[in-house]
Amino acid sequence: QVQLVESGGGLVQPGGSLRLSCAASGRTFSDVNMGWYRQAPGRGREFVAISGYLGTTLYSDSAKGRFTISRDNATNTLYLQMNNLRPEDRAMYCCSVVQYWGQGTQVTVSS
């Protein structure tokens, strides 16, 4: 059974940084794309970044230049380094692999 467990969220001041992790289990993930999405209160789910299994990465315009997605295939872990956070980055961040989703980790950016 595939499980995705996110961690690393929290409260941070504007301009601060957080590193999110997504621990995946239940199968090999080195041959699939893995991605981060977020959902803010009252809004739909939004794409943030994706890590392709061939080494490519893709970012939303909002994430580009501030966030970095990476993965460790040896430990089946997906990361999202978020720098220069803004209040509008406040959301529940979830990782996704194939059709599976984690429960998410909350990120709040506030002074």
Q: Would you mind describing this structure in some detail?
A:
With 111 residues, the chain is mainly β. It has strands at 3-7, 10-12, 18-25, 34-39, 46-51, 57-59, 67-72, 77-82, 91-97, 100-101, 105-109. Strand 9 (91-97) and strand 10 (100-101) form a beta hairpin.
Q: Helical region count?
A: 0
Estimated helix fraction: under 10%
The chain-level mean pLDDT equals 96
| Radius of gyration, taken over Cα atoms and rounded to an integer in Å | 13 Å
Largest sheet, strands/sense/barrel = 7 strands, mixed
Shape: globular
Question: Would you identify the regions where 5 or more consecutive residues have pLDDT less than 50?
Answer: none
Number of strand segments: 11
- In N-to-C order, the SSE pattern is EEEEEEEEEEE
Assess the beta-strand content as a share of residues: over 45%
Question: What is the first-to-last residue Cα distance?
Answer: 40 Å
Q: Structural class of the helix and strand makeup? A: mainly beta
Task: Write a concise keyword list for the protein shown above.
111 residues; 0% helix; seven-stranded mixed β-sheet; four-stranded antiparallel β-sheet; single chain; mainly beta
Secondary structure: elements and pairs:
Blueprint: E1 3-7, E2 10-12, E3 18-25, E4 34-39, E5 46-51, E6 57-59, E7 67-72, E8 77-82, E9 91-97, E10 100-101, E11 105-109
Parallel strand pairs: 2-11
Antiparallel strand pairs: 1-3, 3-8, 4-5, 4-9, 5-6, 7-8, 9-10, 9-11
